[in-house]
Amino acid sequence: MIADIANIASTVVSDYSHCFGVLWLFVTFFRVFVATQIIMTSYDDNGFRCDGGGGESGQAGCQLQCYINYEPVSVGTFWVVSLIVLLLPCVLFNMLVQFIQSQNEYKKVNDLPQTWLSATKSLTRTMMTKQKEFIWNPAISAALIIKLCLTLMVEILSIYGFGYLQCYKYPNELTGKCNDITMIKILKLFDLLMVVPEGYNCNSKNFHVENLFGYKRNVTICHGNLRMNCWITNSVSKSFLNYVMVILTIAGIFTILGEALTTIYHQIQLAIRNIEDNNNRRSDFATPVSYKEVGPKYLGESGNSDGITSTDGFENEPPLFIYRDKVSECKMKSLERKIE
């Protein structure tokens, strides 16, 4: 499943992203490799040992509860899930593009007028010395910006989620409950939360009658007030992996932010061009002319305005569509005479 999602994300970035987007994809794929091939093995090595000491504290359930209080969710599981969620906006964006393409083809086959959603144009851009053709319309433009904003939000939430999980490892150093921890507090305690402690003092008085999801327990764990010293194996290696993933996530935040700003800048350029076109009685957001009305002579054989002109990138785009003037048919007749 991860491979399929990665292929979709690669296609979307190749078609619609700039250099920042390509760099973000490289960083993300490297994180996926580290999380799936290294962290999952390292954090799931059963490297949590308690001294037991006999009696109640020697119960298997008591030691297991100590581990749950130390690490409610495995950090390896957290990173893998967060990376899958991180790539989901690309999948949703690709689904929208496929839907628009199918609507465009359906209307062409049935000789129906294109709508603002289905009408597209074909653009060509140079990416890594290669020519890439892709479709474009206002819906895709808006969805692209939404995708980038969602991706940035997931990146930031990943940092917060990691800090929240690490909070459980330091119950004595942090005042208040982990549920009250904020992003500002995580940043202040950044160095501490990156480190996996070598030891953990488990106190049964912190075991509540409810589990982490708020449901009452049906068994009694660790009668009385018992303390156990627990030890974490390979704590230095796990701390190093924490540093690697957090640094890569911060790099992902800056690269996707750069991609979002670059995309918005090009969209502003296109909006300015639209205003200039409106002054010349042309509008990229007016009523589309159907393929039947204009014919293949102007729109091209595909009927989606790819016969208008070619382009080498976002900065030299032609108008999104060819449009009919709502107030008069004179312009339409003039256009037909000009084509002839």
How would you sum up this structure, described in words?
With 340 residues, the protein is mainly alpha-helical. It has one domain (2-253): de novo design (two linked rop proteins). It is 56% helix and 8% strand. The protein has 11 helices and 5 strands; from the N terminus they run H-H-E-H-H-E-E-H-H-H-E-E-H-H-H-H. Strands 1-5-4 form a 3-stranded antiparallel sheet, covered by helices on one side. It has a two-stranded antiparallel sheet with strand order 2-3. A hairpin with a 2-residue loop joins strand 2 and strand 3. The chain is elongated and about 80 Å long.
Total count of helical runs of at least 4 residues: 11
Indicate how many domains the architecture comprises: 1
Structural class: mainly alpha
CATH architecture: Up-down Bundle
Report the count of strand segments: 5
Helix content: 55-70%
Strand ordering within the main sheet: 1-5-4
Strand content: 5-15%
